Amino acid sequence: MVQEQVAAAAADAAVPAKDAEQQQPKPFSVKEGMQGIVSLLEKSVKTKETRLLMGRLMRQTAMVRKHMTASDLARFVKTYLPQDSSSAGFLQGYLKQDADVAPMDDDATTAAAGAEGGGDAGAAPGPSQLPEVELYSYLLVLVYLLDRKHFTQAREVADAAVGLLQQHNRRTLDAIGARIYFYYSWAYECTGALADVRSTLMAAHCTAGLRHDAVGAETLLNLLLRNYLAYNLYDQAEKFRSKAQKADSWRVPGQYCRYLFYLGTIRAIQLEYSEAKEVLQQASRKAPTCAHGFRVACNKWLILVRLLLGEVPEREEFSAPGMRGPLAPYFELTCAVRSGDLAQFRAASDKFAGAFRADRTTNLITRLQYNVIRTGLRRINLAYSRISLKDVAEKLALPSAVDAEYICAKAIRDGGIDAVLDHAGGFLATRELTDLYSTNEPQAAFHERIAFCLNLHNEAVKAMRFEPDAHKRALAAANGGKESMSVEEIARAIEEEEDDEL
User: Fold this and answer.
1) What is the 3-state secondary structure (H, E, C) of 182-202?
2) pLDDT for the residue 109
3) pTM of the prediction?
4) Distance of CA 198 to the CA centre of its chain
5) In 3-state terms, what secondary structure has residue 388?
C-alpha cells in the first residue's frame, strides 16, 4: 500500500516537470532561420510580392543577426550559392579566418539527423540561382563584418555588393538593395571616407526615382542628407532636400523619422527655430521605443532649440528613463540659461566641450550665450532702478563696461528690457512702471475678447440656420412655384379670352 502511494506521488510530481519542459521556449536555430529566409525570398520572387520583404524579411534578419557566426555564414554561402560562382569564393574568403576558429558542424551528422526525422527532412537544400539570394548573402556578410568592426573588409564587400546590385533591375531587390546601400554608407563613414560615396549615392537615388523604387529613394535621400551634414554642408543639403522627389506618404516609418531629424537640424542651423522645434518633436514622438539613441539625439537638439526660442524645458524631461545620463551636459546648460549666469554657462560649455563636439551642437551652444546675457540683464533690470555699466559688466562677467553698454543697447532695441542708457553718466536706468489700468490696454484686450466671442456666436448661428444644400432645395421650390403660377396664369388668360369671345 505504501509503495503504491509513493509511486502515485512520484507520478504526480513528474507531470508538472514534464509540462514545464514543454512550456520552455525552443532555442533559436540560425540554420532554420536562414532556411526560412531563403524560402521567403523564393516565395516573394515567385508571387512578385514585395511587401513580405519589407517587414517579415527584415525582422527575421534581425533575429539571425543576433546569433549568427562565421561558421553559419560559411555554411549558408556554401549551401545556397553555386560553388562555381565568383560570389561564393569571394565571400568565403572573408569568412575563412573566423570560420576556422569555430568550425562548422559535420555534414554527415546533419544528414544523419535529418534521416532520423524521416522523409524530406533530411534532404539538403540545393543552390539557388536567384540574384535575391546572392545579394542577401552579401548583406549578411557585410553586417557580420561591421558588427565585428572589420571596417576595411566591410568596405570591400560593400563595393562588390553595390556593383552587383547595379546590374539588376528587379522590384524584389528594392528592400535588400536599400539595406545594402545603408551599410555601404556606414562602412565608409566608419573609415572616415564618407565623401567618397556621395556621387555613387546620388546616382543611385536618381535611378531609384526613375524606377519608382520608393524604399530605395527614401533610404538614399536620408543617406545623402547625412552625408552633407557630416561635412557641415547645410546649404547643399537644403537645396538637395527641396528639389528631391518625395512621395506624399513614406513607405518606411523609420526613414521618415530620420528625415524629420535631419530637417530639424537644417532648420535649426538656418535660424528657423519654430519649424525646427515642430519637426524635431514629431521625430521624437514617431520614433519607436527601441530606438533609444535616436530619441536621445532628437531630445538634445530639441532642448537647444527650445532654449534659443526662450523656453525652459521642465526638469522631468531630463529625468526620463534612459535620459538622465546622456542629457546631463544639457541640463547644466539649461540651469545656466535659466539663471542668467554667464560664468556658469561658460564653465559648462568648457567642461562638456568634447560631448558637444561629438553631438555637433557647438554652433547652437555658441548662440545661446546671448540668451544667457539677456536673461541676466532682465534680472538686473528688475532688481535695480539704476546701476552703473561697470557693475553690469561685473555681474554678467563681461570684459569691460563698453561691452556692457553695447549689449544693453541691443537688449533695449530688441525689447528685452525696458530701460534707458545714459552714456555720459555711464549707467543703466530702469523706466518707471506706469499703472497699466490707467492706459487703454485693458480696454483693447477686453474688446478683442468680446469681438472674438461675438464672431464665434455669429458663425454658430449661421451654421445652425442654413443647412447643407438648403439653397438648392429653396431654388427648386422657387422654380416649381414659378412653373405652377405660370400654368395658372395661362389657364386664367384662356378663360378670360373665352369670356370675351362669348
Assistant:
1) HHHHHHHHHCCCHHHHHHHHH
2) 38
3) 0.72
4) 22
5) strand
C-alpha cell at 351: 567642461
With contact defined as beta carbons under 8 Å apart, do 152 and 191 qualify? yes
What burial letters (b/e) apply to 273-295, b meaning 16+ CB within 10 Å? Answer: beebbbbbbbbbeebeeebeebb
Find out whether 38 and 128 touch, Cβ atoms under 8 Å. Answer: yes
Q: Please give the helix or strand (H or E) that residue 387 lies within, else none.
A: strand 386-388
Cβ contacts of 341-345, under 8 Å, gap ≥ 24: 341/372, 341/376, 342/369, 342/372, 342/373, 342/376, 342/396, 342/397, 342/398, 343/397, 345/369, 345/372
Q: Which residues contact 174 (CB under 8 A, 6 or more apart)?
A: 50, 53, 213, 214, 215, 216
User: In angstroms, what is the C-alpha Rg of the chain?
Assistant: 37
Q: 3-state class of 83 per DSSP?
A: coil
- In three-state secondary structure terms, 326 is coil
- Residue whose cell numbers read 532556411: 35
Question: What tens digit of pLDDT does each residue of 326-339 get?
Answer: 888 898 888 888 88
End-to-end C-alpha distance for the chain, whole angstroms = 133
Sign, CA dihedral 310-316-320-323, equals positive
> Which stretches of 193-318 are DSSP H helices?
198-210, 214-230, 234-243, 253-269, 273-286, 292-308, 315-318
Question: Kind and range of the H or E element at 369?
Answer: helix 362-383
Highest mean pLDDT: which of 125-129, 265-269, 344-348? 265-269
What is the rounded distance in angstroms from the CA atom of residue 204 to the CA atom of residue 166? 8
**Cβ-based neighbour number of residue 319 at 10 Å:** 11
DSSP run (H or E) holding 477:
helix 470-501
The secondary structure of 399-466, three-state, reads CCHHHHHHHHHHHHHHCCCCEEEECCCCEEEECCCCCHHHCCHHHHHHHHHHHHHHHHHHHHHHHHHC
**Alpha carbons 347 and 349: distance in angstroms, whole number:** 5
